[in-house]
Design brief:
This protein is α+β, with helices and mostly antiparallel strands. It has 5 helices and 8 strands; from the N terminus they run βββββαααβααββ. It has a 3-stranded antiparallel sheet, with helices on one face. A 3-stranded antiparallel sheet has the order 6-8-7. Strand 1 and strand 2 form a beta hairpin. It binds zinc ion (ZN).
Length: 158
């Protein structure tokens, strides 16, 4: 059985043998192959090629139905993610707790987050020197950098 997954980082569609646990995107990101992420399935490698093309077209805004279905997700990613992360992280008791919660929630929402995401959230929390706060998390092994410029929290609950 084959399937099509979409890279969380660059949004390109990629065909994969569903027996694999991970696959590396052409952008270098390692995509975990989990059922929730499989956009389409094919019995043969040959069907898979056509399917990857279809999903790519859909990702590029191909069909109207697809755009309608995806609209809430796009909105969620582009506008509300930082607001939601700030709202959750702000509830932590102290600065260290808010910083940790920000990393956890960003990872939950985005899979990997960039410095720009991080800066926006920490600014929203009123925490100065965001890059220093991130460097501290990396030093403490609470956050790692799976790919240059993209970060992930090691733990996903506070
Ligand atoms: Zn990619």
């Amino acid at each position: 059985m084959y399937g099509v997954v979409v890279c969380p980082r660059c949004k390109r569609a990629k065909g994969v043998d569903l027996k694999q646990k991970t696959t590396t995107c052409s952008c270098g990101f390692e995509i975990r192959v989990v059922p929730a992420r499989v956009r389409a399935r094919a019995e043969t490698a040959r069907e898979l090629v056509a399917l990857v093309g279809r999903v790519s077209a859909e990702m590029a805004g191909g069909t109207e139905a697809y755009r309608r279905a995806q609209a809430p997700i796009r909105r969620k990613r582009s506008r509300d993610v930082h607001v939601r992360v700030i709202g959750i992280a702000a509830k932590a008791r102290d600065r260290a707790g808010r910083v940790r919660a920000a990393a956890i929630e960003l990872t939950r929402e985005l899979e990997v987050f960039s410095i720009a995401d991080w800066d926006r959230v920490l600014a929203g929390l009123g925490i100065p020197q965001p890059e220093e706060a991130l460097a501290t998390l990396v030093r403490d092994n609470a956050v790692f950098e799976p790919k240059a410029g993209f970060y992930r929290s090691v733990i996903l609950s506070p």
